[in-house]
């Protein structure tokens, strides 16, 4: 999270991603079978800002045959969609899939949500391990998408004998693919446990409106715990006013309480911070904190934190984190509180 982050979008029932991998007949038929996919649409993406016809695209208009994929994020995540899509295309072919050759048959992943950029890059990194040649899958924000003519929509449903670069066996097997059971159980539990805003931030990486979080100005002694699991994350003695509009901390209570991963979304290189026990998106860490506190700034969303005042820490089972100095809390063991998931 940075000071110019956009505000959190309201919780929505669906999300979307756009995938190009050769003739859209086969890609649409394959993706239609995937668990959690609600709707697909064949079209032309990321060419000039003019609505093309199929003939224009075949004459090298610069557009890519693309499928818009609308899915339910409570049933699958974008990583599941991409993992399966990438498994049925040749990711190193340039402007070609199967017997189809041309710029319109190039491979690409086009996103409308900046938060999808990181999982896209991670999915491609996994695929790259299996190829010596560099991948030829372009990753771009969606610039333009024009629906294809009606007769192209779900073409293989009406014309099952039409040629297709995706094997029929792969299409048939797509309906049996399932995300990890752990993902489904976790999402069901968190949907019941968290507010819509907490869910969008924690699971979908959204960002609170600057200055809107309840803990931006909290200054009393205590600790901040994972809203889903109760894992102690940050303490008041490491909190400082960074003037950025989000709660800022110099360090977590315990380095094992959080994980950090590279985040290249929004055209920047940042370090995302996630809770180790709940695996929730918390915010980002920057190297511009006070030097006297170590030089780091953990910029965190209030919604994914629950504040436990010093006076209530003993009662709630965090007594071992009460420092000898009554004005601070949280410089000792944090890792052994991960088992409070059910109590909090």
Task: Please tell me about this protein's structure.
- There is one protein chain.
- The model is unreliable at 1-11 and 330-344 (pLDDT under 50).
- 43% of the residues are buried.
- Strands 7-6-1-3-2-8 form a six-stranded mixed beta sheet, covered by helices on one side.
- It is elongated, with a radius of gyration of 23 Å.
- It has helices at 24-32, 54-58, 78-87, 117-128, 155-158, 168-174, 181-193, 196-204, 310-313; strands at residues 15-21, 37-45, 64-71, 96-97, 100-101, 107-111, 137-141, 145-147, 222-226, 232-235, 239-240, 248-249, 258-263, 270-275, 281-286, 297-300, 305-309.
- Helix content is 21%, strand content 24%.
- The chain folds into two domains: 15-179, Peptide Methionine Sulfoxide Reductase, Chain A (2-Layer Sandwich); 183-340, Peptide methionine sulfoxide reductase (Metal Binding Protein, Guanine Nucleotide Exchange Factor, Chain A), CATH 2.170.150.
- The protein has 344 residues and is α+β, with helices and mostly antiparallel strands.
- Helix 1 runs parallel beside helix 6 (168-174) and helix 3 packs parallel to helix 4 (117-128).
What is the overall shape? elongated
| Major β-sheet strand ordering | 7-6-1-3-2-8
Major β-sheet profile: 6 strands, mixed
Helicity, as a percent range: 10-25%
According to DSSP, the number of beta strands is: 17
